[in-house]
């Protein structure tokens, strides 16, 4: 009787109001893989909110004042024209567009910044970047009988199977045999010639790299080091960070067949966010601002940078496909002699010819001192084993600490070479000038800020004193007819953080630097230094036939995450200034490229806009696209 009454009371609201609207987020809670339409239903269940739009757009408009390349976008120089955008006009359009849901607004902003193609300058709304859509048919661009073509990756079965039965059961229960597609020749995608569709994805999905040719390579599946492990990237066609597509139509010729078939391949979305149970907890977990969203006043927090005397500058892209990195299938992991110093982001080998050493640099991230000792350990072993030639592989190196790129350059070229970096500036906007003035008045230094002058050196190599004002007066500069004043020009002071002794002269014969062009930020600065200062041979694999491709992807100088910039503003005590961006009310990150590295070829051109093509270009083959050792042996 009691239980019956309780049940009646519980049911009462339902009886009065009819069935409650189903919660589309509850329907997918606790699942690793969900159909993209179900993920999208959850994401689209939050109505558009004008307060949030004004908050995010005001934040972005004021952060853009710090973005060093803003004025270049008005008319991006060749071969980078594809990125041209009137940033202020686009912000005004988004301010007046009618949106139905918060998703529609947020994704419009996400797509806009993605298509600026500057991996340092992107809006990540964490609410809507928490899924990776996965197609069980990643594509590659390989040469067969002398001609490049688009194929479903021949190793798809070994590769995709690693996602586990939660992924593969979905296709089995739908009766979709994805395994038979492995290695198929693709003849049409969504009604377009395969390379035309690849260009479309490079233009609309990939982002990160100013150069279109480099983005073409991001569309395909490729080998990489993720964190400290060999991995295979799914590629942007088969692994985008959005859930708009539910399936992809291809016409293809399966292996051992001569008949063209039409297939409609389903996507399945992989959830990368924090646990939730329903719509409200999905918002709390992924969408609402949290303690890490905005910056802090470091004067108040007793902060010491990573237990170091100074903060460390970074330059890296955010590749969401790192969150659930899938391993490189074991048969394709190098099996030749491993060299010392290979437990971190660097994997070094001696090829079976016993003459060639290889350093595969997965990134410049992770253990700052460990990276330096790993470089030294590998090179010492190459010397001991009388290695006569060394090649560096920078494939899919997304960057990292600015000073680790300069360390590697300095170590390879010797201390006699002198300054190992670029001439640099930041933007002298009025708020930046107020920050530096306030830092000086407060007596701050590089232990708490990136803005104080002791982060830099004069061009003669002397470190600037922290009280030096290098940004006011500013230096005039004009881009696309707009005044765009900068700070004084300065050098980095990376040698202060080198923890390994540098040889005076080059320790070995560096033959060449190779990659797929997806070499971002610190990696792009390093490879540009090797080209501009040493004329080192650069080699790039892949790219669309007939289209050019740069050897560097995205050559910004230093990135500030939104929280980093906000920390500079709060620590300087200028958060109340009308030019200061407001704290974000949502969980998101509007990062930006904060410094420019100027080319040695033309001191008025940022290296980002200096077209630098590889010395040599080769095609991937079925043997090399996922097999680093086979590629190095070929090279
Ligand atoms: C499969 O997904 C369930 C939740 O839906 C999870 O509990 C389980 O650990 C997953 N299995 C694997 C092998 O990942
Ligand atoms: C819009 O968002 C703000 C800030 O999170 C919140 O206070 C407000 O309640 C929201 N408005 C509606 C109608 O949900
Ligand atoms: C958006 O437009 C409204 C109306 O013109 C204006 O008041 C507001 O300041 C604009 N918001 C931003 C972020 O520019
Ligand atoms: C790469 O393939 C294209 C055809 O797609 C061919 O013209 C070119 O010569 C090949 N490059 C090399 C280095 O073999
Ligand atoms: C294709 O044919 C070859 C030779 O008959 C065979 O070894 C191979 O297993 C076949 N591959 C597939 C996917 O059917
Ligand atoms: C380097 O230049 C600065 C600024 O002009 C100057 O103060 C300093 O004395 C110079 N240092 C040397 C070693 O010449
Ligand atoms: C750079 O090296 C290439 C050969 O790899 C050579 O043709 C070229 O002249 C060199 N350029 C300079 C400036 O030394
Ligand atoms: C080692 O890897 C290479 C390249 O993938 C391959 O050709 C060779 O057969 C492998 N050797 C052994 C012993 O597995």
From TrEMBL:
Keyword Signal: yes
Organism: Macrolepiota fuliginosa MF-IS2
Leader sequence segment: 1-18
Keyword terms: Signal
Top-rank lineage group of the source organism: Eukaryota
Protein name: Tail specific protease domain-containing protein
InterPro entries: ClpP/crotonase-like_dom_sf, S41A_metabolite_peptidase
Keyword field contains Signal: yes
């Amino acid at each position: 009787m009691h239980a019956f009454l309780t049940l009646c009371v519980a049911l009462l609201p339902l009886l009065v109001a009819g069935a409650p609207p189903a919660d589309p987020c509850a329907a997918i809670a606790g699942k690793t893989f969900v159909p993209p339409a179900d993920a999208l239903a959850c994401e689209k269940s939050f109505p558009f909110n004008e307060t949030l739009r004004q908050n995010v757009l005001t934040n972005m408009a004021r952060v853009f004042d710090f973005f060093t390349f803003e004025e270049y976008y008005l008319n991006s120089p060749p071969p980078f024209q594809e990125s041209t955008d009137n940033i202020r006009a686009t912000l005004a359009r988004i301010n007046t567009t009618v949106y139905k849901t918060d998703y529609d607004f947020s994704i419009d902003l996400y797509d806009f910044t993605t298509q600026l193609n500057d991996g340092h300058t992107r809006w990540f709304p964490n609410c809507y970047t928490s899924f990776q859509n996965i197609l069980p048919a990643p594509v590659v661009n390989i040469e067969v009988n002398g001609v490049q073509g688009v194929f479903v990756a021949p190793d798809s079965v070994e590769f995709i199977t690693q996602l586990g039965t939660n992924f593969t059961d979905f296709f089995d229960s739908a009766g979709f045999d994805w395994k038979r597609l492995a290695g198929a020749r693709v003849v049409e995608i969504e009604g377009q010639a395969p390379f035309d569709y690849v260009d479309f994805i490079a233009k609309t999905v990939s982002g990160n790299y100013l150069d279109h040719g480099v983005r073409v390579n991001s569309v395909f599946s490729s080998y990489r080091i993720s964190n400290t492990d060999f991995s295979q990237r799914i590629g942007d066609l088969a692994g985008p960070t959005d859930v708009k597509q539910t399936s992809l139509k291809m016409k293809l010729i399966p292996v051992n067949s001569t008949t063209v078939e039409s297939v409609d391949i389903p996507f399945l979305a992989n959830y990368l966010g924090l646990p939730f149970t329903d719509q409200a907890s999905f918002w709390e977990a992924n969408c609402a601002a949290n303690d890490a969203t905005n910056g802090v006043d470091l004067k108040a927090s007793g902060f010491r940078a990573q237990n170091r005397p100074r903060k460390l500058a970074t330059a890296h892209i955010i590749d969401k496909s790192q969150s659930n990195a899938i391993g490189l299938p074991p048969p394709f992991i190098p099996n030749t002699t491993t060299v010392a110093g290979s437990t971190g982001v660097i994997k070094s080998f001696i090829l079976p010819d016993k003459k060639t050493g290889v350093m595969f640099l997965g990134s410049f991230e992770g253990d700052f001192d460990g990276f330096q000792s790993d470089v030294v350990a590998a090179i010492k072993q190459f010397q001991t084993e009388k290695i006569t030639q060394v090649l560096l592989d920078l494939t899919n190196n997304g960057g990292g600490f600015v000073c680790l790129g300069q360390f590697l350059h300095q170590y390879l070229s010797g201390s006699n070479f002198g300054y190992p970096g670029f001439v640099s500036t930041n933007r002298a906007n009025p708020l930046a000038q107020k920050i530096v003035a306030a830092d000086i008045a407060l007596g701050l230094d590089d232990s708490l800020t990136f803005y104080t002058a002791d982060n830099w050196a004069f061009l003669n190599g002397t470190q600037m004193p922290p009280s030096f004002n290098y940004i006011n007066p500013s230096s005039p500069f004009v881009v696309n007819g707009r005044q765009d004043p900068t700070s004084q020009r300065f050098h980095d002071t990376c040698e202060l953080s080198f923890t390994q002794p540098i040889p005076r002269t080059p320790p070995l014969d560096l033959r060449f630097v190779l990659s797929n062009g997806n070499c971002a930020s610190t990696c792009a600065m390093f490879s540009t230094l090797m080209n501009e200062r040493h004329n080192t041979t650069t080699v790039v694999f892949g790219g669309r036939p007939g289209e050019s491709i740069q050897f560097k992807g995205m050559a910004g100088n230093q990135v500030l995450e939104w929280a980093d910039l906000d920390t500079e503003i709060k620590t300087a005590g200028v958060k109340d200034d009308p030019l200061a961006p407001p704290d974000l009310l949502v969980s998101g990150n509007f990062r930006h490229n904060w410094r420019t590295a100027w080319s040695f070829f033309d001191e008025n051109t940022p290296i980002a806009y200096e077209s630098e093509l590889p010395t040599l270009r080769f095609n991937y083959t079925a043997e090399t696209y996922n097999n680093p050792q086979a590629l190095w042996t070929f090279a």
